[in-house]
Design goal:
With 270 residues, the chain is mostly beta strands. Helices cover 6% and strands 45% of the residues.
Length: 270
């Protein structure tokens, strides 16, 4: 198992090394800045807009009743300030033989789940003293409703609000001769029955000094252990995401990033 994972990472590194880029921001699969599934306390630079999409293995989805198959998601996010980031994410549904979907929709992408996410960074790294970590509060999928009528906060149970979670996160970076390490911790909570969360999460990322565009990630997201990598290219306009959820189920994504204020400000975003 370990040898197989090492081989996969070697293949990934060779593939990514064919590109050239700059920057090393982590990007969660739901569109906000973070690790893979686990949130952190980082926020993009003010005015940064991101547009992306993912292929998601079925094990990456929180509810087998509605999914239970591989699917896709797409999202848009923006950092209104360098302490506030929000995103809007859509995850595709197929029709299934469950009594809800008409037979002509079975096996076809016919609908999508929509949800908002947001993160508020309260403290920057080193704000009060040199070794102080960043601190952020965040939420995914906080409300639900029919169509675009987002009025109902009832996201408990196993109905709408599939991606709901609240969290507090800490992040600290350490520079060494080998490269930069990011250390991340969070506490996640929701009241779901299909994907309950009420516990700590821990993560580590590493950007090697010889190739900072490459970013390796390992995390425990309060449910599963995941590993992956991101790679930035074309002056960080594009970021590639590769993930092995539970260290074996492959998901991948691509995000385009631009700063609406001009000047490529996202390149030095921390």
């Amino acid at each position: 198992m370990i040898l197989d994972l090492i081989k996969r990472f070697c293949v990934l590194s060779v593939f990514f090394s064919c590109f050239h880029g700059m920057g090393y921001a982590q990007l969660m699969t739901d569109g906000l800045t973070g690790l893979l599934h686990m949130p952190n306390a980082e926020v993009q630079r003010s005015g940064t807009f991101m547009l992306g999409g993912n292929f998601l293995d079925k094990h990456n989805l929180p509810n087998d009743k509605w999914w239970g198959y591989d699917t896709y998601s797409y999202y848009a996010s923006i950092a209104f300030f360098d302490f506030l980031e929000v995103s809007y994410t859509c995850t595709l549904f197929k029709g299934k033989n469950t009594g809800f979907w008409p037979q002509q929709t079975w096996g076809k992408f016919v609908n999508q789940d929509r949800h908002f996410s947001g993160k508020l960074r309260l403290l920057k790294e080193g704000q009060w003293w040199q070794h102080m970590p960043a601190l952020a509060l965040g939420v995914n999928d906080p409300t639900t409703g029919a169509g675009i009528d987002y009025k109902d906060m009832a996201v408990d149970g196993d109905g709408n609000g599939f991606f709901n979670r609240w969290y507090i996160a800490l992040t600290k970076h350490i520079n060494t001769q080998a490269g930069e390490f990011g250390i991340h911790a969070a506490y996640l909570y929701n009241r779901r029955t299909d994907y309950p969360l009420n516990g700590p999460a821990f993560g580590l990322n590493f950007c090697p000094a010889f190739h900072k565009e490459l970013n390796f990630i390992a995390e425990y997201d309060a449910k599963t252990i995941n590993i992956g990598a991101t790679y930035s290219l074309w002056s960080d306009h594009f970021n590639l995401l590769f993930e092995l959820q539970q260290c074996k189920y492959i998901s991948a994504g691509l995000v385009y990033k631009v700063n609406l204020l001009g000047g490529n400000q996202w390149k030095k975003w921390r």
